[in-house]
Amino acid sequence: MNTSRRSFLKKSTIAFAGTALFSKSMFAAPYKNEVLGLQLYSVRDDMKNDPLGTLKQLAAIGYKNVEHANYVNGKFYGYSPTDFKKVLDDLGLKMPSGHTVMGKQAWNDATKDFTDQWKQTVADAATVGQQYVISPWLDESLRKNYDDLLSFLDLFNKCGELCKKSGLKFGYHNHDFEFKYSLNNQKIYDIILKHTDPALVAQQLDMGNMYGAGGRALEILKQYPGRFELLHVKDEIKSAKGEMNDGYESTVLGKGILPVKQIVDLAKKSGGTSYYIIEQESYQDKTPVAAAKEDFTVMKKWGY
To answer: Residue 177's pLDDT band (boundaries 50, 70, 90)?
Structure first.
């Protein structure tokens, strides 16, 4: 249960060629127009071994929304887009967003257009009911040279136009390198935010990934108000190695060192955030599903 997210995303880039009941008095009134969900990478091994059974458990906890991290060879967790949508519908679940790496191979330089395979990726996302196609990685080769990075960010904007034709929006999800490295004396994350059109490219801020590299979500939200339509909600504790090889790993919300409630409240107030996606990649002494249940309870208590 200790699969590296970084390793998982690198591999995916290559691969691309019973209801829980709670007393109402326990929870604050939920905010309007906010969507609470779970990134299914949180329960990745369970989804690999028994996707239907795992989704049933999540629905029983009370989740209404999930975010995928597994679109391989035109299928979501082994299901065709139509079949997976039926699975979700039957369980009362929606999947407004999903992670699929958009790498250099998504673009055909000869035709100056996206490849048929990437176009099919967007079409399948629409079929399954997504509102966002989110790329959660930027290949190392694309972040060594300032001009190369700007050229690829132009493809981000073009992908936003492509997604818009299918009623979707393209998005980007950060890790740690965006805050660790700079080009032309600018943090990579600042370059991404400055050179992507908010109308075409949504930002999904991961408050945990950035921490070991010095990124602080509260500061980023204040620096770029209104830019973060989606938020990955995490807490962090010190770790011998860490998920980003930075000495930190995720834990149950409210049990770590991040000011999680302050961050989600600021995101709601001025971040432009409507989608709050829980992600926990390490579990200490818990099972992934048990951790997802605790995280859900915390967010509900906070009014989300």
So the answer is: very high
> For tokens 């108000």, what's the residue?
225
List the domain range (segments joined by +) for residue 233.
5-301
Mean pLDDT score across all residues of the chain:
92
Measured CA to CA, the distance from residue 130 to residue 167 in angstroms comes to 9
Measured between alpha carbons, how far is 217 from 201 in angstroms, rounded to an integer? 19
Name the domain count of the chain.
1
pLDDT at 26 over 80: no
Q: What does the pLDDT average to over 201-230?
A: 98
The domain that holds 79 is classified in CATH as 3.20.20.150
Band (33; pLDDT cuts 50, 70, 90): confident
Per-residue buried b or exposed e for 274-293, using 16+ beta carbons within 10 Å of the residue's own CB? bbbbbbbbbbeeeebbebbb
